[in-house]
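Lay summary

Proteins are chains of building blocks that fold into shapes. Our project writes down both the chain and a compact code for its shape. Here are two examples, one after the other.
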Amino acid sequence: MAENAPLFRISSQPPLIQLIISLIVIVVAGLLAVTLLILAGTLIFNTTPEELLKIPATGSGPHETMILKYVQVSQQVALFLIPSLIIARLLRMDDSSFLMTDKSLPAFTMVLVIFLAVLIIPFTTWAGYINSEMDLPDRFAGLEIWMKAKEDQASELTSLMITSSGVLTLSVNVIVLAVIPAISEEFLFRGVFQQLFGRVLRSPQAGIWISAIIFSTIHFQFYGFLPRVILGLLFGYLFYWTANIWISVIAHFANNSLLILVTYMNEFRSGNAEIINGESVKVDFPFISVILSCLIIYLLWHQFRRGGKSRFY
């Protein structure tokens, strides 16, 4: 068995072959896993696949909301997490971890990253407002209508999932909308895509930018494209500098969690779930947010500039 083990790994293949095989794994393993989880969902909720995947209407009850959260978790785990773990196994080199999950998380670094993830929110909110002002030429009117429809649909689904009736529901929301996406998305977009594109193009910068663009595009919320690219770049550079996937996971988690908590507090005060973003109100350029964020980014870069870059570049 030990002699045959290398046959099941692709770490010795050229980077382009590694990328192609990884994309195949993502499609095949992702579709298989999501199919199995959806079938399991039909048994759990005693319904049909069509009803399970049906988009619930605004004001739907707790049962429909729970189904929506189950589907959200299933997609994250099946399409992002499981393929990432399979690819990491195929690309494993000796006893090292391809996803770089084998490193500890320094307490001081974690605190800095959490502060950074919080401080950058005013800037991404401003970027969201700028993005929402996008107006396509008349010849792209059909595309613009489709993009706005997708944006409205995504906002409605987010409102349904994020609405909290108490601390228990809030805890479930943090798990569904912060913990699982942070791990699943970072493993795929930073752990897999960023490294593989960096290898293929022989440029870590290209890997960071391409993975950030894919990360933003895959959400199909085009009026929030710019702030997600900014976050993708932030998570990407944190991973590149520290060679520790848990750093970008913590940043992703902290960013999502704060938005969930702020929405919960607004709902608690007003009785309505109001998602904070830059689309509904004009937001001035947040100078303090940018200055403090740049300061923390510099501290992190300075801390890890000596030997902190990924060994896979």
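And here is the second example, written the same way.
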Amino acid sequence: MIVVAIIAILAAIAIPNFMSFVIKTKRSEAKYNLSAIYTAELSYFGEANAFSNSFQTIRWRPEGTIYYYTFSVGTEIYGKGDANPGVVPGATNLSFTAYGWGSIDTDATSDVWYINDRKEIVNETDDLNT
């Protein structure tokens, strides 16, 4: 009986820590890919003196498989927090914003991140605190 109690206490401590680790891993996918998009946009800007709305134009594609997030380049996101928000295209010659969104838990709210031409990475909608 004591052994079962000890295992239950250890499980009560370990499971929340494990879930926190899983969430950090999912969010790192968004930050990593948004940083890569920023680098690709900056490289393209160096060649063309303008930013682009097209991943094909800036020659960016994710390395490996994307599991949790969807990425797009645009100036504004609508339906923030929805399961499938949309992005209004609109990179200009002098600015861009790239968005990544996805559900990192089981609810209908999306975790929304963006990076802009000033390299500001922002968690616009926090899926865990909504």
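What can we say about the second shape? The chain has a mean pLDDT of 81.
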